[in-house]
Records
---
Amino acid sequence: MVTRKFEFLEHTADIKFRAYGSDLNEIFENSAYALKEVMVGGKVKGKNKKKFLIINPVSLRIDLKRLLYSFLEKFLILIDTEGQILAEIKKIKIDEKNGRLEAVFLTDNIKNYNTMTDVKAVTYNDMIVSKEKKFAQVVVDV
């Protein structure tokens, strides 16, 4: 069992974090929580239930970086289009074989919180997803 969910690492211009977990589902979940922490810090009340499905293009080999990028980008799009910020992930299921990710989560209106940092984008720069070492590393453009 992993005790820490994520940590922030030094970066010259943007924000870098490393998220941990006992499996891919937990690693992705904690990556989403780290992204939320960058933007609002602290607790968010879960008032609205949301879900999404990400299906990566079929290929011979699943691209976990692309799946993580798409997953985190969905939360940024949710802020931009609906003004909703992640509160809690209720369910996440990654199907590596078919390149699919299903997530059910709770959100709240971002206007109810003091935003700390405006995240412009998730990047592939210095991104790592390691099932063996049980972590993901992400840099977000601020």
---
Amino acid sequence: MQLVTYNIHFGLGRDGRVDLDRIAEAVAGGDVVALQEVDRHWPRSGMVDQVRGLAERLPGHYWVFGPTIDLASPLSRPGPHGAKRRQFGNMILARWPILASRNLLLPRGPRATRTMQRGVLEAIVATPGGALRVYTTHLDYRAPRTRALQFRAICDLIDGAVDDGGAWSGSHPSDGGWVLGDEPEIPTAAIVLGDLNVAPTDPEWATSFANRGLVDVWELVDGAAEARTKPDHGRIDHCLVTPDLAAEVRDAWIDVGATGSDHLPLWVKLDR
């Protein structure tokens, strides 16, 4: 099974062109695809619904989208399906059914260093080797303290997910069987894919990101320390797994030929 994470920078390539075809081609071989910085109805990306566009270009994948910014569009008009929204966020696509999904917002830190709202998108994917929890996120780029808060929130979410159960777990005063079938089991195995905006060579990695119960797959395959997923920032896009998945990691590599974004896709191969 191949996984890929790619901060697509709303499809804006290094040549200054917005081109979703390049993004879809770069990730088409992924069984599980995690994308960040996906636009919906923004002028900078031509008012295109990039979620729909990417789904159409990858027709063999199921998908979910988690907006972290959701605003009224001044260019939209009311209609039978509602006014278009300007949205920005994270997307997960998978070749197998996505049994459940949640989109959760992350802490924003002190106002003095605050930037846009960030979030983490969770998907339970029914892979042939068993269900997996897949998370994708894009952490704050500006403040180490805020990144640490956000990453801690993700780790707490991962640690507590099995006990918390699904989004509809628990009693409900008017439970009338509106959920068809049994809720899917919450698997212990989890993967975090995304742009953490911190490199393992940065001092904050050791203080805020290492030793949090997640394993950096790049270290499992003896990856080169100088590898870069963003040419001028180092390896800031990551795949982290829970320890029960570490033995399944077979390879990891960076697609240095991709040109559709200011980031490069990070690929991981699992033995399942």
---
Amino acid sequence: MPITVKLRYLRIAPRKVRLVADLIRGKSVEQAQTILNFTVKKAVLPLAKLLKSGIAAAKEILEQTPENLYISKITVDQGPTLKRWRARARGRAAEIQKKTSHITLTLDIVKGAPKKVVKKPKPTVVKKEEKVAKPEKKPTPRLARPEKEIRKPSFVKGLKRIFRRKAF
């Protein structure tokens, strides 16, 4: 049973995201994480986060470890385009298209892999301890700070200097 995770409305053009998505398509999850760690592209961070989310879902739903998973399908589709305008010469306007992406990532179990079941930790019961009465602390009086001397501004005889320019 494959696990599908989606990331919608990513503010990166799909053309740029597909460059990174093509690198990890068909790879095992561990290989894909390594590739994403060493790729220098803006789309790497959202894809790595999506992959991490898919691994967590696989652990929870399929009870599989990342060693048994691979990326069976990854698609990058175009989302809605935000249209903006920029002023150009002679009173004209040029359209700026800010494209968005929808990414769908499907993780599946490797065929012939031994079924390693993730052991879920047992919830621990915390025993309530009796509160020991602590001796009350007396508030310490705040020490008054010594007052600072207020200096009078020194004036030069003649013109008061306002600007830093030499010629006035």
